[in-house]
Amino acid sequence: MLNIQEPQTQDNMPVSTFSEHAFFQLAFRSSFILGAIASILAMVIWLGFLNAWWQLNPTGLTPTVWHLHEMLFGFGATIATGFVLTAVQTWTGRPSIQGTPLLALLSLWLIIRVLFFINSTATVILATILQGVWWVSIIAVYAHLVLAAKNRRNYLFIPLFSVMALLEMALLISELTIDTAQALHLGRTMVLMFGILMGIVGGRVIPFFTRNGAKLSKVSHPPLLDTLLLVVSLLGTLVFFSHFYIALPLSPAYLMIAAGCLHLAKLSFWQSHKTLGISLLWSLHLAYGALGLGLILLGASYFTPLIPFSSGLHVITVGAMGLMILSMMSRVSLGHTGRMLLPKAIMSVAFLLLFLMAVTRALLPALGLSHFAWQVSALGWIIAFAIFVWVYFPVLIAPRQDSFR
């Protein structure tokens, strides 16, 4: 499902225009670098705000909503859509967006980021409109390719991206109409949706990568776990979303805990102990484990004040989402530019640092060290993704190599 093939001829042709550079030949190259840089800048701004070095513009998004929005959409959605717009080329056998159209889409994305970073009422309104245009463009490109190829297996990303787009639009409109509570709720719902996406994708590829990378004869789990997990996760997200608006007899807490336990049950079948010497594997196993643990903590937060909801949320966003993205970006950046899957040793430092930041962000608030936890985890994120940019920027702007041929 997640293979990517690059054009085999273009890298050897002379580059006559800027848009023909290798950086613009497939969407994952630019989305990985720009998404990582955007997350670093957003976290630097957030760290400065936490330490009162500067203030966010008070006329735009409130600070917490701004932070949540930029990390979920400026970072997470950017990288996810860039990867899928690349993978769809392999799934359908049809060329995906590249060259001048991709450059135009990236230019639109950059304008949107600048507007959100300025964060005035006017720039947020304009950014919201342009963000809608960006989502329509992403969905239109993807839908055209899979529908034309009748690639039914991957139709699911059309409704998934559509729901993500609607959630972002609703979040921004809520904030612009001074309904910050609803905006935060929609953002938290988006985290759970990312959890579903990570569960589906991770559940498919991590056993496959583990079997091949660790040279094991079999890595699998009972198929029933997949069915149960999907049902419980979807129901849990729906109940969590609805609980904000109407009183329901079923608390989302039980469904979150159940989903977390099911994730950990799946992980127990994947022979994680045999991945310890392979950073591109143990990092994925850690990330998937963080997803299960984060959901359990979210559920437990309903029953005890000792576990803040935000602690579980950040185990998912930092330890699961951040680490899984960092690991997958490293794998794709090597494998799909024709390089061997042998990351530099410093990437192991980045993987471990990000996981430790998730643990720090979850545990220290319970010890009354919330402000310290915020600062340390933000700094750790900046360092981890700066390492990625430093290591992989030369890879992602260079033509494809032929080490696999």
UniProtKB/TrEMBL annotation:
The keyword Transmembrane helix applies. The chain crosses the membrane at residues 32-54, 66-88, 100-118, 124-143, 155-174, 186-206, 227-246, 281-303, 309-329, 341-360, 372-397. Keywords: Membrane, Transmembrane, Transmembrane helix. InterPro entries: NnrS (IPR010266). It comes from the Bacteria. This is ATP synthase F0 subunit A. It comes from Pseudoalteromonas piratica.
